[in-house]
Amino acid sequence: MTSLDSVLVFDKDGVRLTVEDAVATVTLTNPAKRNAQSPALWRALTEAGRSLPGSVRVVVLRGEGQSFSAGLDRQAFTPEGFDGEPSFLDLARGSDEDLDAVIAEYQEAFTWWRRSDLVSIAAVQGHAIGAGFQLALACDLRVVADDVQFAMRETSLGLVPDLTGTHPLVGLVGYARALEICATGRFVHAQEAERIGLANIAVPADELDGAVRDLSAALLSGPRDAVIETKALLQGAADRSYEDQRVAERAAQARRLRDLAGLGD
C-alpha cells in the first residue's frame, strides 16, 4: 500500500513507483500471476529508473503477494505472445543483430539498480525464479524472507540467463557455486542464501518490511557523497590490482577531504 506521505510517480504495466523523501519504492503489482515478467513490465522498470528524482538515495524493490517474481511469463513462448508484442518465436526468426538489440533493450530494466548514486535493496519473499532471480541479483543488496525460493531455471528450459544475472551471481557466490545453481536449476532457500552470500539478511516473513526499513535508515545515516564514493570504490575493486585499488582509494579520499574542507570544485 502507498503511504500517505509517498508520492505516486506512476503505476502501469505491473510496476508502481512511489517516492518518500530519499527512498523510492518500485513494486511489482501482479500478484495473481506471481509477478511474472513481460517486455511491457521491463519497459516500465526502465522508466522507473529514468523517473527517479535526484533526491533519491535508496531504492527498494518489492513484489506484491506471496511471491517476489516467478520469472518470465510463459505466454512469451506461445505463438501469439503478448498483445502488441512480437512473440519470442518471431524474435528467434529474426537476424542476429535484431535479436541482440531486443535482448539489450530488455536488459536495460536490470542495469540501473547499481548506479553509483543509489543503493538498491531487493525485498524478496516466496518465489524468485529465473528472471525474478536475476531481478533480485540486479540490486546491490537482498533482504529475504524465510520462505524465499531462488532458482535459475533458464538452463532447464534450454536457454541461458541473459538478463544480467550471471555477473553478480558469480561475484556473490563464486564460479563453481554459480555454475551448479544455474546448471541444475535447483532451489536455494533462505538459510543457504544467507550463508553463501546471496542474501545480506534473512528474516521471518512477517519481519521483512521492518528489516528493509531498518536497512534503508542505516544506509541513509551516512553522508551521501561518502556513500557514493565508497560504492564506486567497491564496484571497481574486482577489476583493479591491489596497487590500483590503493591509488583509487587515495584519489577518492583526497576528493572527500577537499569537499569537507570546502575546497572542492
Keywords:
265 residues, alpha/beta, seven-stranded mixed beta sheet, three-stranded mixed beta sheet, globular
Characterization of this structure:
With 265 residues, the protein is α/β, with parallel strands linked by helices. The protein contains ten helices and ten strands. The strands form two sheets. The chain has a seven-stranded mixed β-sheet with strand order 1-2-3-4-5-7-10, with helices on both faces. It has a three-stranded mixed β-sheet with strand order 6-8-9. It is globular, with a radius of gyration of 19 Å.
Kindly report the oligomeric state of this protein. Answer: single chain
Number of strands: 10
Rounded to an integer in angstroms, the radius of gyration calculated over CA atoms is 19 Å
Secondary-structure class: alpha/beta
Distance separating the two termini:
42 Å
Helix content percent band = 40-55%
Strand content: 15-25%
Shape assignment:
globular
Give the strand order, joined by hyphens, for the main sheet: 1-2-3-4-5-7-10
Summed over residues and divided by their number, the pLDDT gives a mean of: 94
- Give the low-pLDDT segments: none
Biggest β-sheet: count, sense, barrel? 7 strands, mixed
- Name the helix and strand elements from N-terminus to C-terminus, one letter apiece: EEEHEHHEEHEEHHEHEHHH
Count the DSSP helices.
Answer: 10
